[in-house]
Amino acid sequence: MEEVPHPKRIFSGIQPSGNLTLGNYLGALTRFVELQNAGAETIYCLVDLHAITVRQDPDDLAHATREAAAAFIAAGIDPRRSILFNQSQVAAHAELAWIFNCVARMGWLSRMTQFKDKAGKNRENASVGLFAYPCLMAADILAYHATHVPVGEDQKQHLELTRDIAIKFNQEFRQDFFPVVEPVIEGIATRVMSLRDGTKKMSKSDPSDMSRINLTDSADLIEKKLRRARTDSDPIADSLDGLTDRPEARNLINIFAALSEQTAQNVVEIYAGSQFARFKDDLVELAVETISPITHDMKKLMEDPGEIDRILGAGAERAAAISEPILTQTFEITGLIRSRPAAIDES
Ligand code: AQP
């Protein structure tokens, strides 16, 4: 008998916890656009409930959420083809997260390296939300029965936890209900590193703005940051092996490769023997060529925040139409009574 292919449903999200970076763009957004354009069912979420696991200024959070939506659209997400919304507008995320808080084990969450990194030495003072973050992430994905999740390398451990939660829920309730998701960690730039320290991930919450390229940076600022990006004084090697102990050099080569859609090996072959100053001339040109049109379109979209809110609201309605029946079934399986029809909009 011919096997019926399992339908693919893609889900992924980005925290609106600041300006989106070149890391978010190369590691996540470009993949999101490719998957949408390949005709997959794509659901993309600005995970504002995740963002508040660390302190956020309310006005800045609202601004960053709209700006992230503008970045998605400017980068090629079409809100008619993909579902684009912010997490807090769809109650299923928080509701399912509570159920998963009761499925996941303290020991599992204690092993999460992102919690350890973000809580730092002051664990006692970290929010409970930061600790339970991976349960909310599992809820984001499983509320849609998503099957594939495109992410950067740093999210691999959280996705493994999502799989563990799905498996444990299914086993506990003797149901084959939640799919065991597949991470999609693909592309040349699954881990873009800081411009100041090649061993640290480029991150929107890094205290140093010089460590990252933001999608809102002007061409002059992109140039300044790349010219000051840390390298070493050796010329570019002719093979990737020659860059093993040179993380900053390797990072710039990777960024160049991802921006120009070629392999890192190709890039070192082109620039073998050159000094980084010469390589940076071309890198600046390439980065500005890619980012400036996105920055320009983001600015235009941000002139009409009402329209962005309308897009997010429409996306939330479509998202709720998928997640509400899944949540209702989850309640039934769990023994939680839900005797009124799912309320998507009570106004
Ligand atoms: N440096 C990176 N390289 C490749 N991919 C990256 N991603 C983030 N940084 C890089 C990918 O972008 C998606 C959204 O990530 P997120 O914003 O939800 O959370 P994060 O991974 O914690 O990203 P940041 O920038 O470090 O945010 P903050 O500083 O707020 O915690 C994910 O797919 C991620 O892999």
Write down the overall mean pLDDT: 93
Task: Report helical residue fraction.
Answer: 40-55%
Major sheet: 3 strands, parallel
Gap from first CA to last CA: 50 Å
| Approximate shape | globular
Radius of gyration: 21 Å
Number of helical segments with 4 or more residues: 13
Q: Total strand count, please? A: 5
**Strand arrangement, largest sheet?**
1-2-3
Strand fraction equals: 5-15%
The unreliable regions are: 1-6
| Strand-pairing-aware structural class | mainly alpha
Bound molecules: adenosine-5'-tetraphosphate
- Please trace the helix and strand order, writing H or E for each element: EHEHHEHHHHEHEHHHHH
Mind sketching the topology for me?
Layout: E1 9-14, H1 22-37, E2 41-46, H2 48-51, H3 58-75, E3 83-86, H4 92-101, H5 106-110, H6 113-119, H7 128-142, E4 148-150, H8 156-172, E5 182-184, H9 219-228, H10 247-259, H11 264-271, H12 276-302, H13 305-334
Parallel strand pairs: 1-2, 2-3, 4-5
Helix pairs in contact: 3-12, 4-7, 7-8, 9-12, 10-11, 10-12
The chain binds adenosine-5'-tetraphosphate.
Residues 14-15, 17-18, 21, 23-24, 27-28, 151-152, 154-155, 189-192, 201-205 line the site of adenosine-5'-tetraphosphate (AQP).
